[in-house]
Amino acid sequence: MSTEKPKNSFSEWLRFSREAHALALREVANRTGLNFTLLSRFETGERIPTEEQADALAKFFRTNKTEPHALRIAAQFRRKFADHPAAREAILRLAEEQGIYRAKKKSTG
Q1: Does residue 28 contact residue 39 with C-beta atoms inside 8 Å?
Q2: In total, how many domains does the chain have?
Q3: Which of 21, 41, 53, 76 has its Cβ near the most Cβ atoms within 10 Å?
Q4: Helices 87-97 and 66-81: crossing angle, nearest 10°?
Q5: What CATH number has the domain bearing residue 42?
């Protein structure tokens, strides 16, 4: 098992967190009160958790809520806009608004 936390998707975060605690998916379901089948679908990427479900999992794994929520929101964006031609531009604009990225201004001269 890897000791590095994957950050590519909510499903990878969930699997990593569960395996890091040496827990079966059914045990996570029993201890969080979340449906086993639903958790399985989160872990395979078939479903995206709600904010409340992500909160419950973050609390259970005693982790900061930011990472699972960022991964959840990214999954929602990806699912809804991945094939949209303006998706990349939208991401860059959001990053620029947050001061993460600065777009090069085109000269008009």
Answers
A1: yes
A2: 1
A3: 53
A4: 150
A5: 1.10.260.40
